[in-house]
Each structure stands twice: as structure tokens, then as C-alpha cells.
Amino acid sequence: MRIQISRRVLAWLLIFLGVELIGIFFVSKWIGGWRTLFLLGAVGLAGAYLSLAEGRKVWNEAQKQMQLGQIPGLSLIEGFCVALGGALLLLPGFISDIVGVTLLIPFTRRYYRVFLLQWIERFMRGGHLHRGKF
């Protein structure tokens, strides 16, 4: 099985990585290399802890909804945001850390949830979802 990545996605990924490296370079010039390395490590560890704590909250909420016979749709989107935020915090870089933290904080995660719901609705209304055989 071969995975194909579009050139546009690859270009955006390279641009993002370049901006992250430039950010790390400038922060290391500003506060020093060892402090920058410590800061990136500390944010990664704090992000891992925060993503586990928020993940437990979202998991418990989804379980409560299922016990009440409800579909945990919003909890699934919240769980996706928490997982993505945790993954971004494990990546070295300050922009990914900022986005990762905002995905983990419940107050700001609400805005991402609205964006994702609108994107899913546009995707489904655009006819991009096809039924087929496995």
C-alpha cells in the first residue's frame, strides 16, 4: 500500500518546519541554547501531563453520554482536539506548542470544535463522502 501526499501538503509541512526552526534559532539567540532546550523539554512534559488529564475528562464525559444512551459526537471531536494538541506539544517548536496548548484548554478548544464541525458539514455537503465496498 502506497501513501500519496499531495505536493501542497508537503509544501505547507516544509514551510511550517522551517518557521519552527527559525523560531527555535531566534529564541536560542535570545535566551541561550541550553535554556531553549530546557524550555522545549519542559513544555513537552507539561503538555504530556495536560493532554492525559484532559483526555481523561473527555473520556469520562463520553462514557457518561453512552451510559445515558446518547451518541458522544461532540466528545469525539473534543477527544480529537485533545489528541492533536498533545501530539503538537510533543513536537519541538514554539508555534506548535502554542496551538497545542490552545487545543488542550477547554475554553479555547470550543473554537476549534466549531471550526471542525463546520468543516465536516462542508465536506459532507460537498459530496466528498462516498459509500463503497471495503
| Strand segment count | 0
Helix content: over 70%
Regions with little confidence, pLDDT below 50 for 5+ residues = none
Q: Could you tell me the radius of gyration in angstroms?
A: 18 Å
Can you count the helices? 5
Largest sheet: number of strands, sense, barrel closure? none
Strand content: under 5%
Secondary structural class: mainly alpha
Secondary-structure element string = HHHHH
The global form is flat
Through-space gap between termini: 15 Å
Q: Name the average pLDDT.
A: 86
Describe this structure in words.
The protein is mainly α and 134 residues long. It has a domain at 42-125. Helices cover 81% and strands 0% of the residues. It contains five helices and no strands. Helix 3 runs antiparallel to helix 4 (94-104). It is flat, with a radius of gyration of 18 Å.
Can you give keywords for this protein?
flat, 81% helix, 134 residues, mainly alpha
How are the SSEs ordered, and which strands pair?
Blueprint lengths: L6 H25 L1 H35 L5 H18 L3 H11 L1 H20 L9
Helix pairs in contact: 1-2, 2-3, 2-4, 3-4, 3-5
Provide a concise account of the structure shown.
The protein has 134 residues and is mainly alpha-helical. The chain contains five helices and no strands.
